[in-house]
Amino acid sequence: MRPSLLPAVAALTLLTGAAAAGSLDDRIGRAMFERLWVTAPASTQATDGLGPLYTARSCATCHPASGGLPGGRGRPPTPGDAEDRGVGFVLRLNEDPVYGRQFHTLATPGIPAEGRVTVAWKDEKVAYPDGSSAVLSRPDYGTADLGYGALAGGTSLSARLAPAVRGLGLLERVAEADILALEDPDDRDGDGVSGRANRVGGAVGRFGWKAAHPTLTRQNAEAFSLDIGLSTPLFPDHWGDCTPAQVACREAKHGDSPQFEGVEIPTTILALLDGFLRRLPPAGGDAPDDPEGAVLFAATGCAACHRPSFPAGGEAVAAFTDLLLHDMGDGLADAVPAAEASGREWRTAPLWALAAGRAADATGTNGNLALLHDGRARSVEEAILWHGGEADGARGRFMELPLSDRQRLVRYVLSR
Fold it and tell me: Does a structural domain hold residue 80?
């Protein structure tokens, strides 16, 4: 088979040390984002190394295009459809001795997959003070058809949904000092909100559901390792998340190559992918002015964590996050910590990825969205009602609003 142009260009870039110019960088970076990786050995060493255990064959599989741009959100399995695995939907584990950090439902030929994910949903009614109500769906995650025996007794399961990866370059430019200035771990101002930064190896984490990665490069490298099973200089194990108990997985052929730094994704190629993602703009563009919505957003307390603006490299970034960890209460808690983040803590999610929700109806309750870390919330309203812990006050103030104001606040969030 004739090698494709991309590996040839990538290899030339790596060997010469010359950075590709402008648009060529983006073309290679996007091609790497969309690359469907294959099992080793393959006809070209620049395309193989998949697995042996994996969740997806490409970055774009978990972060599909939407609105004409790559890097969108995933979605959870469809309730009632046992065959639907969702998109960019995985189970994280708290270091199971056999199954590792992530439960993998796919594997290369000759290697047993770890099993399949099960989800049972239970509806819960929430009553508003004005007599109206909403229905939340609580997920119960499990596993079936296990390929390596039972999970350890203390293993916990926590679902993760692939978030949108647009606008991350802007968040990376926010100074650590500006993030740390917002910390209030002891709630000195008495507002019930006590956010803190996740410190990762001496740096401030800002990426991922629990802010476990301080840089985009590290986040991408871990995704290559956990999700696709590809090695990088930061995560050099060519077997990805295979544990010592999974002997055949550890001994399977891999795509490490001397000319590619002895890994499957060398530094230069990782940098081209990073650069492509850094230049992806956030979804939605300019949001319309809505002074009344902004007032409601602040008055309920939503803006205490979802800060409307952040300085980043000399410009104001309207990401609606403080990049801090917050205790979100029992309803959203898991038992899978990350760096210094506990099972109850989650990083404030940016709201600019909700631009796709502009097609929703006026109240945002049409079920098209998949919000929170596992996609359980089908609307902005449901996402707010799941908030607890430090967000108890904001949730309560939202529930006390008249219906028209609740709808206005939801429209404001969807328009960001």
Answer: no
Q: Which residue has the tokens 């989800």?
A: 119
Q: Is residue 331 in a domain?
A: yes
Cα distances from 91 to residues 123, 125, 199, 345, in angstroms, run 21, 26, 24, 17
Among residues 128, 187, 137, 131, the alpha carbon closest in space to that of 397 is found at: 128
CA distance 145 to 156: 17
Q: Residue 143: how many CA atoms within 13 Å on its side-chain side? A: 25
Q: What is the pLDDT of residue 67?
A: 73
- Total number of domains in the chain: 1
Token pair 């990350």 is found at 338
- Identify whether 203 is part of a domain: yes
Measure the CA–CA gap between 42 and 338, rounded to whole angstroms: 35
Residue 68, pLDDT above cutoff 90: no
CA 410, CA 67: separation in Å to the nearest integer?
A: 21
State the pLDDT at residue 256.
Answer: 81
Buried b (16+ CB within 10 A) or exposed e, 222-243: bbbbbbbbbbbebbeebbbbbb
Alpha helix (H) residue ranges in 214-342: 216-223, 247-251, 267-278, 291-299
Measured CA to CA, the distance from residue 161 to residue 144 in angstroms comes to 20
The range of the structural domain enclosing residue 201 comes to 166-211+281-414
Handedness of CA 360, 363, 367, 371 (dihedral sign): positive
